[in-house]
Amino acid sequence: MSDPMTATAIRRAGLSAAETAETVISMIETREPEVQAWAYFDAAELRAQAAGIDARPERGPLHGVPVGVKDVILTKDMPTGHNSARYLGSRPGIDAACVDTLRAAGALIVGKTVTTEFAATNRGGKTRNPHDPTRTPGGSSSGSGAAVAAEMASLALGTQTGGSTIRPASFNGIFGWKPTWNAISREGLKMYSATCDTLGLYARDADDFELLADVFGFFEMPDLPATLPGLRIGFARTPTWDQMEPGGVQAMEEAVARMKDAGAEVSELTLPPLFDDIHEAHRAILDCEGRSAFLSEVMNTPGIHDEFVAKTENRRGETPASLRSAYRLADECRGLYDDIATGYDIVMTPSATGEAPEGLDLTGNAAMNSMWTLLQVPVVSAPGLTGPNGMPIGVSFVARRYEDRRAIAVAKLAAKAFAGALEPVA
């Protein structure tokens, strides 16, 4: 059965913002007590916002589409709390550029979704995985991923500095898109790492990402893949493959088999030794840039968590030489990856080490994501596979920088293959 509340379906049906608002309010009343994805939601405000959208003389491409916004992204009519005591109830009174763009396209901003503190920690919060409330939805975009998976929003905005968009997409069984770095303006997003911070997006239908690519003005690409037969896919295990869980490994083996059955040509992509230290370079760069990003927070927030203090005190002992080396490695790997990726139509890699872990204290391991974030390439996670406990496991499709539409197109095809919706090729 098709989902009537995807952005594409809402547009096709010509639903009013008032209609979608009522559907969302009903879903939040039903699912939120268990899932707890929202940091801020006001039904009366949502109805008033919907009335204003419907009163516009023209319908935008996202007219009435309900969007959740991670609570580290500024919103003019809602508080932005960063899950921090210092910003409790803070109302900056302006929209982040991405929210401003969505509003101009007619989107209905539902509310603010739960984040880990400053989107910079893997300490968990109140949000639960909609598939199993005893498990984490991932983070730091915890509420955004869970809200879309629980059908409390059609789309949601997250962020990614390590694995904060792609990992929750995997854990929640939805599509996740980490665009090319800075292809969508980051103005109005809480700063952590200028090198890695990227706006992220969630949807239940890959067609919605195509619509968002139009709204945000991504480069058009001719001759995008429309079928899997003959598609050249490089399967990258990455230097952190040793952190994969057995269930995650089994899911990736199944993904490879499904893609081959659908006619794709899948071959191993062994990255050169230069990439062996990129995970460590990512950590060094985040420590360096987090040191400056959180200095004011540490100085002005009594009782702030020690992990932020540790960054400002440089407890890892980074030096000017070690940091220059980390930045140089990142630069070299970006150029080299662009060269390597020209030999494939797309690169396939895990979205997470395995299923969503049990418990809410931690949001999971980002080992399979941080390399791609530092490389600043577009990544789209496709759902459809499950692990040994029946929980979702996603597969990431990685393209060269600014080829976001290619990653979206292949992820869309892959999800159909994972779901058995494509005819096997004889």
H and E string = HHEHEHEHEHEEHEHEHHHHEHEEH
pLDDT average, as an integer?
97
**Large-scale geometry:** globular
Order of strands in the sheet with the most strands? Answer: 1-3-2-4-6-5-10-11-9-7-8
Specify the CATH homologous superfamily of the largest domain: Amidase signature (AS) domain
Question: What is the fold-level CATH name, i.e. the topology of the largest domain?
Answer: Amidase signature (AS) enzymes
Low-confidence region ranges: none
Q: The biggest beta sheet, please?
A: 11 strands, mixed
Note the gap between the termini.
28 Å
Number of domains: 2
Q: Helical element count?
A: 14
Number of strands: 11
InterPro entries: Amidase (IPR000120), Amidase_dom (IPR023631), AS_sf (IPR036928)
Organism: Pseudooceanicola nanhaiensis
Protein name: Amidase
GO molecular function: catalytic activity
